[in-house]
Structure formats: structure tokens, C-alpha cells
Amino acid sequence: MFHNRVLPIPRIITAGLVCTALTLPYLWFILPPFVDAACYLPVGECLVVLVEAAILSWSLELDWKVAGACSLVMNAASFFLGLLLV
């Protein structure tokens, strides 16, 4: 999967920045009025993981499974780092 291709670091960083720029505003500012507070976290994070997986799959030409795993790991790391910093 990952070991079969060499992706340039700037391209990976750009893909990560695009993922954040496209999903963070929707998660924080647009989604809350439409989703009940009890469901906000699971619904919001699942949507973000799916959208970011699509972005990663397209921009880095990754298989959907690999892109989904990357998106899940990135978002889990971000979520738990946020919990540690609060």
C-alpha cells in the first residue's frame, strides 16, 4: 500500500492543508445548527473522515481503503491531541 509509491512531501502537506481548509469550517460553523448536540461529534467526525478520504484519494491517487485509513488516523490524532490540550 504505502511502500509501493513515493509521494513528494510537499504534495502530502498540501493535501493535508486542503483537507483541513475544506472540512474545518463546515464542522465548526455550518454543521452545528443542523445536528443535535448529542449526535454532533459522531456525525461530524464521520462526515469529515469521509470527505477527507475522498480528497486524499483524489489528490494523492490513493486507493479508497488507504485514503480512508489515513483520514481516520489523522482525525483520531487531531481529536485526541485536542483532548490533551484542553
Count of strand segments = 0
Compute the separation of the termini in Å: 35 Å
Order of helices and strands: HHH
CA radius of gyration: 14 Å
**What is the global morphology?**
globular
How many DSSP helices? 3
Written overview of the protein:
The protein is an all-alpha fold. It has one domain (9-85). The protein contains 3 helices and no strands. It has helices at 9-30, 37-60, 64-85. Helix 1 (9-30) runs antiparallel to helix 2 (37-60) and helix 2 (37-60) crosses helix 3. It is globular, with a radius of gyration of 14 Å.
Brief summary of the model shown:
With 86 residues, the chain is an all-alpha fold. It is built from 3 helices and no strands.
Task: Sum up the structure in keywords.
86 residues
Q: Helices, strands, pairings?
A:
Layout: H1 9-30, H2 37-60, H3 64-85
Helix pairs in contact: 1-2, 2-3
